[in-house]
Design a protein that fits this description.
The chain has 501 residues and is α/β, with parallel strands linked by helices. It has helices at residues 2-17, 20-30, 49-57, 75-89, 111-121, 142-152, 169-175, 190-196, 218-228, 232-241, 245-248, 253-275, 282-294, 302-309, 313-325, 354-361, 371-389, 437-444, 484-500, and strands at residues 64-68, 96-100, 129-134, 156-162, 180-184, 298-299, 329-332, 348-351, 396-401, 408-415, 418-424, 450-455, 462-470, 476-483. The relative contact order is 0.10.
C-alpha cells in the first residue's frame, strides 16, 4: 500500500503542477554537459576534493560519500568540480548526474522518482552512474533511498552534501551503518587562505609538519620564523574575514561580514532550523548564538546561560545540540586527569570560524589591536585547525581546568596513543614557567611528551624543557613555543599530506 500511495501521489503532483518535461528542463539546467552546452567550473580546489574523487572512483568501496560542513564552504563547488573531472577524464557526460535537492520543484518529488525519470529519459539504468546530490537533507526518505541504491545498485556511485548535519549519527545508525563514509570540509585553513589569495608560499619543505619542529635547532627555527614573516598581514586578514571561500578574497570587510550574516548565520538559524529541525522559537536560538559569539572558547554553564537568556536549561541544552548539528559550533568536553572523575562536567564551545563572531558582533579592524579580542579569535582559529587536522585519527579533543587552582589548558588532543596539549597565549611576551597551567597539566599526565605554547610574536619560537618533567629514562617533556600563524599554516599544509596517504 505504501508504494502504491507514493506512486499515486507522484502522479497527482505531476498532473496538478507540472509535467515530466518541466522536470526534465530543470534537470538539463543543472547538467548542461548532457547536451554539450558550455559551463564554468571554479579552478581553486579545496583539500576535500581529492579524497572525494578517490573514494568515488574506488569501486571496491561500497559506500556513499557524505561531504559534510558549514554553509558556504565550497561543497557545491566540489560537486561541480568532480562532475567536470569525470566528464573530462572517464565518463559518458550523461552518466554524471548533479542535482540540487532544495530546488522548489525538485523538493516535491522523491529521489527515486527523480532517478526513474533520469533513467527513462536521459541515461538507462545499469550503466555506471555518478550521482552528485546537493543538500540531501531536503529529500524526504533520503536515508532509505540511499541505502537501497548502495545495497542493490553497485554501478551507482554517490557523493552527497549536507550543510546541516541531518545525516545525523543516530539516523545513520538506524539505516546507514556501513553505507556512508564522511569527508569533512571545514572553512579554509590558513594554508588554503594563502593559496586562494594567490600569495607566494614561504620557502619551506612541503612535507614540514608542526611535530618536526621539536627536533630543529634554535638557529634554524629563527630562520624559519623569518621566512614566515611575510604571511603575518595575511594572517591578520584571515583572522578578520575568516575562511569562507566566497568572502575570503573580498577587500570590503563590511560587505564580507554582511554576506556571512545573511548567507551563513541567518540562513541556518531562520531557514534550516525551522525547515529541518522544527524549531519554533528562533529568537531564543538567536540569543544563544550571540551569547556563544561573545564567549567563543568559553565554558558554558547551562543553568547560568539559561538565566542570562531568560529561558530554561533544557531549551539551552537542546539548542546547543542543534547548533552543533548545524555545523555552527564545536563542543569540547572537559578532560579527566589523574584518574579523577568530573562530577559536574561543563563543555566549552567554539564557533566553526572566528569570522562568524566578527560578522555578528560587527568587529572590524579595531580588534587587531585588542589583546582580549584577539585571544578569543586566535584560540577559536587554532581549534578549527586542530579539529580538521586530527579528524581522520578520530581522537578526543578536550580541555582541562583545575577548579582548585583555576589553572587550565585550552585544547588537548587525546587518543590511546598520545596526548598533545595546546595553550594559546596570543599576547606580547607570555611567560611559560613551571607554574603555568600547561606545565601543571603535564605533571598530572605523564604520557605527555610534547606540548605547544602558541604565541603572537615570531621571536617566541623554540623548545623549552623543565627538569621536574623528566621520566625514568631521563627524557624530558618538550614544550614548543610557536607563533600562531606558523602553527596554523603548517597544520593546513600537513592536511594535504594526510589526504594523500
Amino acid at each position: 500500500m505504501y508504494i502504491l500511495y507514493n506512486i499515486s501521489l507522484y502522479g497527482s503532483i505531476m498532473r496538478q503542477f507540472f509535467d515530466k518535461n518541466e522536470v526534465l528542463g530543470v534537470l538539463h539546467g543543472f547538467n548542461p554537459w548532457w547536451s554539450g552546452r558550455s559551463y564554468t567550473c571554479p579552478g581553486f580546489r579545496r583539500l576535500a576534493f581529492e579524497p572525494c574523487r578517490n573514494y568515488l572512483e574506488d569501486t571496491s568501496l561500497r559506500r556513499a560519500i557524505h561531504l559534510s560542513g558549514p554553509r558556504r564552504v565550497g561543497k557545491t563547488t566540489i560537486l561541480l568540480q568532480i562532475a567536470d573531472y569525470l566528464i573530462k577524464n572517464r565518463s559518458n557526460p550523461k552518466g554524471v548526474f548533479y542535482i540540487s535537492l532544495d530546488h522548489p520543484m525538485i523538493k516535491l518529488l522523491s529521489l527515486q522518482k527523480i532517478l526513474d525519470l533520469y533513467n527513462d529519459s536521459i541515461y538507462p539504468q545499469g550503466k555506471e552512474t555518478f550521482l552528485l546530490l546537493d543538500e540531501i537533507q531536503y529529500s524526504k526518505e533520503w536515508e532509505t533511498e540511499i541505502k537501497l541504491l548502495v545495497d542493490h545498485h553497485p554501478g551507482v556511485r554517490i557523493l552527497a552534501t549536507g550543510s546541516a548535519s541531518v545525516v545525523h549519527r543516530e539516523r545513520l545508525a538506524e539505516s546507514g551503518v556501513g553505507r556512508w563514509i564522511t569527508v569533512p570540509i571545514p572553512t579554509l585553513s590558513f594554508y588554503e587562505f594563502v593559496q586562494i589569495q594567490g600569495e607566494k608560499a614561504p620557502d619551506i619543505p612541503d612535507t614540514l609538519k608542526p611535530s618536526d619542529l621539536f627536533s630543529i635547532p634554535q638557529k634554524e627555527l629563527a630562520n624559519l620564523a623569518q621566512r614566515f614573516r611575510g604571511l603575518l598581514p595575511f594572517f591578520q586578514q584571515y583572522l578578520l574575514v575568516g575562511g569562507f571561500p566566497e568572502t575570503a578574497t573580498l577587500k570590503n570587510t563590511n560587505l564580507c561580514q554582511r554576506l556571512l550574516r545573511e548567507d551563513v548565520v541567518e540562513r541556518v538559524l531562520k531557514r534550516d532550523m525551522t525547515a529541518l529541525f522544527g524549531v519554533r522559537n528562533i529568537n531564543e536560538l538567536e540569543k544563544l548564538f550571540i551569547y556563544l559569539c561573545l564567549h567563543s572558547g568559553g565554558i558554558v554553564a547551562i543553568k547560568t546561560c539559561a538565566d542570562a537568556l531568560g529561558t530554561s536549561p533544557t531549551t539551552v541544552a537542546n539548542h546547543l545540540t542543534l547548533l552543533e548539528q548545524a555545523n555552527l559550533i564545536y563542543r569540547l568536553p572537559p578532560a579527566e586527569s589523574g584518574g579523577k572523575k568530573i562530577l559536574r562536567a561543563r563543555n566549552k564551545y567554539y564557533l566553526v570560524d572566528a569570522a562568524l563572531r566578527n560578522a555578528v558582533l560587527l568587529r572590524g579592524e579595531e580588534i587587531l589591536i585588542n589583546p582580549e579580542e584577539m585571544g578569543v579569535i586566535v584560540e577559536t582559529t587554532v581549534h578549527r585547525h586542530l579539529y580538521s587536522f586530527y579528524y581522520r585519527d578520530t581522537p578526543e579533543i578536550v580541555y582541562w581546568r583545575d577548579p582548585a587552582t583555576d589553572k587550565e589548558v585550552d585544547i588537548i588532543v587525546r587518543s590511546p596513543n598520545y596526548i598533545i596539549p595546546f595553550e594559546v597565549k596570543y599576547r606580547e611576551h607570555p611567560k611559560l614557567s613551571a607554574s603555568s597551567g600547561l606545565v601543571a597539566y603535564c605533571r598530572l599526565e605523564k604520557q605527555v611528551k610534547r606540548a605547544y605554547w602558541v604565541t603572537k610574536q615570531d621571536n617566541d619560537f623554540g623548545v623549552t624543557t623543565f627538569k621536574e618533567l623528566e621520566d625514568e629514562h631521563g627524557e624530558q617533556t618538550q614544550f614548543l613555543k610557536i607563533p600562531a600563524h606558523v602553527l596554523c599554516y603548517l597544520l593546513g599544509q600537513a592536511e594535504v599530506l594526510l589526504w594523500k596517504e
